[in-house]
Specification:
The structure holds 2 protein chains of 2 kinds. Chain A has 4 helices and 2 strands; from the N terminus they run αααββα. Chain A has helices at residues 8-19, 26-37, 43-55, 82-100; strands at 59-63, 76-80. Chain A is elongated. In chain B, β10 and β11 (250-258) form a beta hairpin. In chain B, strands 1, 2, 4, 5, 6, 7, 8, 9, 10, 11, 12, 14 and 15 form a 13-stranded mixed β-sheet that branches. A 6-stranded mixed β-barrel of chain B has the order 18-19-24-21-23-22. By secondary structure, chain B is an alpha+beta fold. The chains are: A mainly alpha, B alpha+beta. Chains A and B meet through α2 and α3 of A and α2 and α3 of B.
Chain lengths: 109, 892
């Protein structure tokens, strides 16, 4: 199933993963997102989106080593795939090309 | 200090969350928790729990299929495999278990079919729950009776003024009939013939195969027959419009054919339905003629109390006005007086579906009724059987627990949880049960024909019905779970340490096993004692002096077919060498429907207090000598005395009602002709003799008062007393005479003692059923005991070896081993005997003439139980005692 669609929240998460490539994991993404958006996000929503974009093939994941943190539980790190990057690029191009078509409208400051 | 996230939330998360996500999610949650904990522990906990709840959605929940597919199926397969191996490794115990359970299940299966048949009686008719039969409840001269047939005019009255009536149909019994096609010359006897209304079909929801439902029974002299009756006479195709001759007298037209009637309905075996308008009295206004079984169907939602109220009012509104008009002597005052002395007569109704099980056999019933008591008795026996077999399984399984304790130990050491071990043993229980089920279905198919004879039914195993399989499989599963549960929960408790070390561990097993053996033998002894009582009572009533001789009496049926020449026929038979007496009468001293006649002594006519209601039999001059009835005083009828045509012979019960001694009563004059409007012409009978009481009812009843008068009303039977034991020659001679005088009529005869045995069929059936199931239950109990004894001998092999080495004799050891079990058997006996006494005493209360139970029955029952158990146990004990001690002591 080659579903290349990308929801708004999913796009944000994918951007986060790309921004923190190979260092991105659940809590890190959550904290950065909360900071940027300036609002509370539930960790389950982050995980949900991560699982979805992973299923679509935009990111890949791997376990880190066992540490003393988190009661010995491994972190799962996410990295953007080539496909993921391409989708992000296309999304960016699409938006900027349309954005450029906006005439110079003044809203009367 | 280490901080812990809320335990319960974490446990919940681990329970539902997919394995491949759990580590990541848990890790992230815990990390967040730890960070937030520094701000506010309470908030962190709350937030943790809240997040966990938010994960509870399809994307994160384990898939159900995965659970079933991977581990559980594999485990189940393993359970099955290990169970099978276990069963194979111990063929002896497996066979005992399977066979015992199979026997119990066969019994239960057959009994269930019987109960189903009984409980669905009459339920197949359309709207059976709204159909009622009207009865008459009557007490007169101290004798209460119920009748299943009511006055003829009631039907018309109810149709006219009972608003809740939807349908009503009336029958009239007419007994057996000789029937043939008009042009044929051979008569056939149809035993079950009844007159019926046209409403009969719509009432019970019958469709006609041939003919028109609405008109089939509306004309006089028309009849409807069942499919098999039609096929017997002329085949189905040309049935309509056939002319049939009934009793060589009346011609009836066949106007319809219906399907054969269901075996579990009150109309069972009825084959011929005559239109009710063919009977002269069908529109008679007489209310004292209780000849019409009447069934009514109420409208939806009509209330039964309302119906009963209506029926109760019928007597005052219709019956009494008619009676006072018809009998000039009857007034409102005399009716009141009668009622004040405890006499009554009321109409009431019984639901159709209650008739078979809850109503005794009444005069007017179509077929013999069943008895709810039999249903209860059989249900108990069925449950007992399964319970006995199930107990065997538990006993043998727990007894073998010793052998399995190592297995349990190893399983537990390797990480098996208790539930897995329980699963293992339950699987074994279910497996054995299903093996037994296969065997039981086979056995039941084989036993079905015999059981049908026993139960007087014609049932088959309903293999084609899904509900049958559903119930059978469901019940077997339950039984397997039940039987397996006790061993499973017991053995799963074993400690692995003890199991592996090889120590003894019987956790509470021994005591429970003893209790189970006691229960088994209590049940068996109860059944043995009951069987003995039933058979002794049967012997008693069959062997009791009846007061007349029923042996060597041949009874010829339907002798009215001879017609005018009956007297010649009788004389010809009298002349045969081996015939002692012949007598012509329809009244045989065997139980049947009778109704009393009211007599008044001379000079006291219409004085209610001196009326006696007693049976009146029309007999001939040879009746008393043929049956060899003893006279207490007076004499028999004398052919040469013309006055004897108005003579009467009473029995001892009758003169007791009159309050006279046998000598005083001779010459007394009584009359049953009090309705004669001309009092001067009233017919009086003179008492010429008194006979000793003889039993003409079953031993359940006291001997009723009886009067014999000379008369040939409906004389349809001839009794022939033979004086030789070889009857065939005489019967051939009689047959030849019959052929001459009644050509084309069926020659139908039976021996009186056979018909007498018929009467006690219910008791005999009960006896046979008891003996069958008693045997089964003893057999099952013995199987269990045998298994336990074998196990015990094996377990104590070393002890026996040591005892022998120290000088014990074989007898001592055998006794020692057997006495353990005998103790249990004796306790079982002690418990069950009082119960058996109580139950059988109540059963015997039904008989007016009954045996004393006595201690002998119980001694015998106890002796049988002890003997059988000794035989069962001693074989194993002897084997153990005789074995060479070296063998048992060497093995370590």
């Amino acid at each position: 199933m080659s579903d290349h669609s990308l929801g708004e929240f999913e796009e944000l998460i994918l951007l986060m993963v790309a921004a923190h490539n190979r260092q991105a994991y659940g809590v890190l993404i959550l904290e950065n997102l909360e900071e940027k958006l300036n609002k509370k996000v539930n960790i389950s929503a982050v995980h949900m989106a991560l699982k979805r974009i992973e299923a679509k093939g935009f990111v890949e994941s791997s376990y880190g080593g066992i540490t003393n943190e988190r009661g010995g539980r491994r972190k799962k790190y996410y990295a953007i795939t080539a496909l993921g990057k391409k989708v992000l690029d296309r999304q960016y191009e699409l938006r900027t090309s349309i954005y450029k078509q906006i005439p110079n409208i003044s809203f009367g400051q | 200090m280490k901080i812990q996230p809320p335990k319960r939330s974490l446990k919940f998360l681990r329970w539902f969350c997919r394995e491949d996500f759990i580590e990541e999610i848990e890790g992230d949650l815990v990390e967040l928790f730890e960070k937030r904990y520094e701000w506010s522990p309470a908030k962190a906990k709350r937030s943790f729990t809240w997040s966990v709840l938010k994960y509870f959605r399809p994307a994160f929940i384990k898939s159900f299929q995965k659970i079933n597919n991977s581990n559980t199926t594999a485990m189940f397969k393993n359970y099955l495999k290990v169970s099978w191996r276990n069963l194979k490794r111990q063929p002896f115990f497996t066979a005992l278990n399977t066979f015992g359970l199979a026997i119990g299940m066969t019994g239960a299966l057959l009994i269930s079919l019987f109960l189903y048949d009984e409980l669905t009686y009459d339920k197949m008719f359309a709207d059976a729950d709204r159909i009622y039969r009207v009865n008459i409840d009557n007490k007169i001269a101290g004798e209460a009776n119920k009748y299943a047939a009511v006055s003829g005019p009631l039907a018309e009255i109810m149709r006219r003024d009972y608003p809740h009536l939807e349908n009503l149909t009336r029958f009239k019994h007419t007994g057996s009939r000789l029937i043939r096609q008009l042009e044929a010359d051979q008569n056939v006897k149809e035993d079950n013939v009844v007159g019926a209304d046209p409403a009969f079909f719509s009432m019970f929801g019958f469709d006609l195969i041939l003919g028109d439902k609405n008109s089939a029974l509306s004309e006089a002299k028309s009849l409807v027959m069942t499919r098999s009756a039609a096929e017997k006479h002329f085949g189905l195709n040309d049935a309509l419009g056939q002319q049939m001759l009934l009793d060589n007298d009346e011609v009836f037209l066949v106007t319809g054919i219906i399907e054969d009637l269901p075996d579990n309905s009150f109309l069972k075996d009825y084959s011929l339905f005559l239109s009710i308008t063919s009977f002269a009295d069908h529109d008679s206004p007489a209310w004292n003629n209780w000849n019409f079984p009447t069934f009514i169907k109420l409208k939806d939602g009509a209330s039964v109390p309302d119906l009963q109220d209506y029926l109760a009012s019928v007597k005052d509104r219709y019956l009494l006005p008619w009676a006072m008009k018809s009998f000039p002597g009857l007034t409102m005052e005399s009716v009141k007086e009668q009622e004040a002395s405890g006499n009554y007569m009321v109409f009431d109704a019984i639901p159709l579906t209650d008739i078979h099980l809850y109503s005794p056999n009444l005069s007017g019933d179509f077929n013999l009724n069943g008895d709810i008591q039999d249903v209860y008795i059989l249900s108990f026996i069925g449950i007992f059987l399964v319970l006995l077999a199930s107990v065997n399984f538990m006993n043998l399984s727990t007894a073998r627990s010793l052998k399995r304790s190592k297995e349990v130990g190893i399983r537990k050491t390797l990480g098996s949880v208790r539930s897995a071990i329980i699963g293992q043993f339950l699987t074994e229980g279910i497996l054995v049960t299903f093996l037994s089920l296969v065997l039981a279905i086979g056995l039941a198919s084989l036993a079905m024909p015999y059981f049908n004879v026993l139960a007087g039914k014609s049932m088959t195993l309903p293999f084609d019905r899904p509900s049958f399989w559903l119930i059978v499989l469901g019940a077997s599963l339950l039984l397997g779970l039940f039987s397996g549960s006790y061993p499973a929960f017991l053995m799963s408790k074993f400690s692995p340490l003890k199991g592996l070390r090889g120590g003894e561990q019987t956790v509470g097993g021994a005591k429970t096993r003893s209790l189970l053996v006691i229960i088994q033998f209590a049940v068996s002894v109860f059944l043995i004692a009951s069987t003995l009582v039933v058979f002794r009572q049967l012997n008693f009533i069959q062997g009791k002096d009846l007061g007349f001789q029923k042996d060597q009496i041949l009874v010829l049926n339907d002798v009215s077919a001879v017609g005018e020449q009956i007297e010649t026929f009788k004389q010809e038979i009298d002349r045969l060498a081996k015939v002692e007496h012949t007598s012509l009468s329809s009244y045989l001293p065997t139980p049947s429907d009778r109704s009393g006649v009211t007599y008044f002594p001379e000079g006291e006519v219409f004085q209610a207090s001196s009326a006696i209601i007693i049976d009146q039999w029309h007999v001939d001059f040879d009746y008393v000598p043929t049956l060899n009835i003893n006279l207490v005083s007076g004499r028999n009828f004398d052919r040469d005395l013309t006055t004897d045509s108005l003579g009467v012979i009473l029995n001892e019960s009758a003169i007791k009602m009159l309050g006279k001694t046998p000598e005083e009563v001779l010459g007394m004059r009584i009359t049953d002709d009090f309705r004669n409007p001309d009092e001067a012409k009233m017919k009086f009978y003179t008492v010429i003799g008194v006979v000793k009481n003889f039993h003409f009812e079953t031993m359940r009843n006291n001997i009723d008062a009886l009067s014999l008068i000379i008369g040939r009303r409906e004389a349809n039977l001839m009794m022939i007393k033979l004086n030789a034991s070889d009857f065939s020659e005489t019967i051939d001679q009689i047959d030849a005479l019959w052929g001459e005088l009644a050509p084309g009529q069926p020659f139908d005869y039976y021996f009186m003692d056979d018909s007498f045995n018929e009467v006690y069929k219910a008791e005999q059936r009960l006896g046979s059923i008891f003996i069958t199931f008693t045997t089964l239950s003893i057999f099952i109990a013995c199987l269990g005991l045998f298994g336990l004894a074998a196990f015990n001998a094996e377990r104590r092999a070393k002890e026996i070896g040591i005892r022998k080495v120290l000088g014990a004799t074989v007898t001592q050891i055998t006794l020692r081993l057997s006495s353990d079990f005998l103790k249990l058997v004796v306790i079982g006996i002690i418990i069950s005997l009082p119960l058996a006494w109580f139950a059988m005493d109540r059963w015997l209360q039904d008989f007016s003439y009954r045996i004393e139970i006595g201690w002998l029955v119980f001694a015998m029952a106890a002796a049988v139980a002890v003997l059988i158990s000794i035989l069962t146990v001693s074989h194993q004990s002897m084997k153990a005692a005789l074995s060479n001690p070296i063998k048992s002591l060497r093995s370590e």
